[in-house]
Amino acid sequence: MGALDGVRVLDASQIMAGPYCTMVLADLGAEVIKVEKTNGGDDSRQMGPYINEESTSFFQINRNKKSIALNLKTDEGKEIFYNLAKESDVIVENFRPGVTQSLGIDYETMKGVNPELIYCSISGFGQSGPYSHKGGFDLVAQGMSGLMSMTGEEDGRPLKSGIAVYDIGAGITAAYSIMAAYIHKLKSGEGQHLDIALSEIGLPWFTWEAAAYFAEGTIPKATGSRHRVSAPYQAVKAKDSYMMLGCANQKTWENFCMNVAEKPEWITEPRFETNTLRHDNVEALEKEIENVLSSNNASYWIEKCERAGVPAGPINNFEEAMQNEHFLARNMVEEVDHPVIGKMKMIGIPTKFSKTPGEVRFASPLFGQHTEEILKSIGKSEADIQSLKDNGVTAARNVSEYRKAESVTR
């Protein structure tokens, strides 16, 4: 039994931020009913790569969910949504502000249906403020928040993060906010509206940058792999490849000098005596370190660092990370059987609970796969269900409707 067993989530979100949030809740035991539009469903279903015409992008962040395809522009579709909301604890949506009002599923309306609802809105710029009407995307948020000005090499071209860090960050922020609101609901019986803005969720992460800016007016610049206040705390080049080296305090630095680089004179070198001096002279420090490391391969130095208690590690590509023995031992790669894709691997669950572990219970749903099951749960008869389908209120595709490709396309 998961920690959120018994919690029902009505998921009206799509693409990444909202679905990532609801996947986290589903992994922890919540029942998640994914409400998809009837003309194609979640837009990520149209994003490759594909296996047997099924999107593996959709597959990765929609596990443990049920799917109902519902036309919310119809009165019948809205009625079904309201009926589901009456028995739900949470609604998650990521429409542009104003769309939920036009559909009749906004917070004020849904609060009238179920006063205890926790209603989470995820949007680019939030539900208020001068930019609230604008659409927001991860890339725009990375640029606007200052992140891209800090990423990459100094004086180089602006670079985004290697992953959609704000989309995922918004999903994580929404998930912990929902759980906090649920605790409040258990205490008070009150629901509430949560307003999550993609453009804002990363700002609290800029701790070192905020310290320098608010104290001294320093505007942070790109520092490559170097840390903003510690040195050496960065990528350094060994004979065959780069590796990560982290001397975050004086003791670790001295261990590195004595037992790894075997350069005890660096400890008393005036340019390197303190962390501040090392940071101020980081270019000279980097050259000195790389001159030593160039004599042997990264694996040699990493092993030597480990023996000396100095944090260090390789710079893996994604394949190397997914095959890492430690990640595999901790179930960070799991495999599940999908009715169309077949057996497929996915990223596992990072939190290890001693009492209520998360679980990958089943694969992502086919488009509208659970429509009939969900409609029956709110009292619809076979005749009702057929009528709703005939009138375009609901939709679904069965496994038999998929063309079985002879070769897998990735």
TrEMBL record:
The identity of this protein, by name, is: CoA transferase
Which of UniProt's keywords are assigned here? Transferase
Does the keyword NAD feature in the UniProt annotation? no
Which organism was this protein described from?
Answer: Alteribacter lacisalsi
Q: Which SUPFAM superfamilies does this chain map to?
A: CoA-transferase family III (CaiB/BaiF)
GO molecular function terms noted in the UniProt entry: CoA-transferase activity
- Please verify whether the record's keywords include ATP-binding: no
Q: What Pfam families does the record tag this protein with?
A: CoA_transf_3
Record's superkingdom?
Bacteria
